[in-house]
Design goal:
Helices cover 34% and strands 9% of the residues. By secondary structure, it is of the alpha/beta class. The chain has one domain. The strands form four sheets. The protein has a three-stranded parallel sheet, sandwiched between helices. Strands 4-7 form a two-stranded antiparallel sheet. Strand 8 and strand 9 form a beta hairpin.
Amino acid sequence: MTGNRPNPLLRHPTFGSVASRELKAAKDVPAYVAIDHDPEGPGYLGVQHGALATGEHPRPNRPFEVRGITLGDGVTLRQFQGRQSLARDLGTAFRGFEQLDDEVRGLDRFSQQAHAIISSPRTRTAFDVARESPKILERFGAHEHSHSYLLACRLIEAGARFVTVLVDGWDTHSGNFTALKQTLLPSFDQGLSALLQTLEEKGLLTTTSVLVTGEFGRTPKTNGAAGRDHWARAMFALLAGGPVKQGVVVGQTDAHAAEPDGVGYTPEDLAATFYHTLGIPPSTEYQTDAGRPITLVRDGRVIREVCA
């Protein structure tokens, strides 16, 4: 999720936070949305580039409200705007203090963006997946995470620059094959296929880079519970959209799916490639609050075989 090995002295930003900084978004649309949370956070880029986290994922046939988007307790948009005006008046007395601290500046940015988002019909409409056409709704199905994929499409269409969808349940230490066959793979196959097809139909796939990845692979052999445990030596990721070539497979494993056979690629390589498809040079350099220069992806190289 960051393209860098964990470091106890430095928190690296997730992909979405980097996109929030580098890719300009409209004021009334969140630059980075996480469905339902961001597992890594903005790191050294600061809270102003954190995700708008939905807190949960939308489910078919159930109301879905996002904190910071929905006006609750009978509050009207006019009343909310009045409260915002009062807050600006009160803030006049404290003007200048927000320049003293990065977190204060970040929270002030969040406050301003929250007002723009709540006031924006475009964003509130994007979060309302029920407004999608019946044809497209049917395409995504009614699985646990089906509307998460759909919401991602709608947010990209509305102008969000980065959306993360977390699909859990893959920790199959027991009952691996039953879980994959009956629930995990059918819903994932339908959701991802619908995501790509819908982006293409809306004319967005050529300008949207898609990355599908997990944390690691699973053990080549089963354990005593018909499950598969954590395995960091071999796994796969999928790239689509944008400048990514179609139908290309890069790399392979040995006969036991235990180790790379020949050339191996690292998470850093994958991150460098993904940033490249987004138009963000992986060699981009930032500075921490302490003035320390940090390269976005220090040890990765772009996998040219997958890029057109």
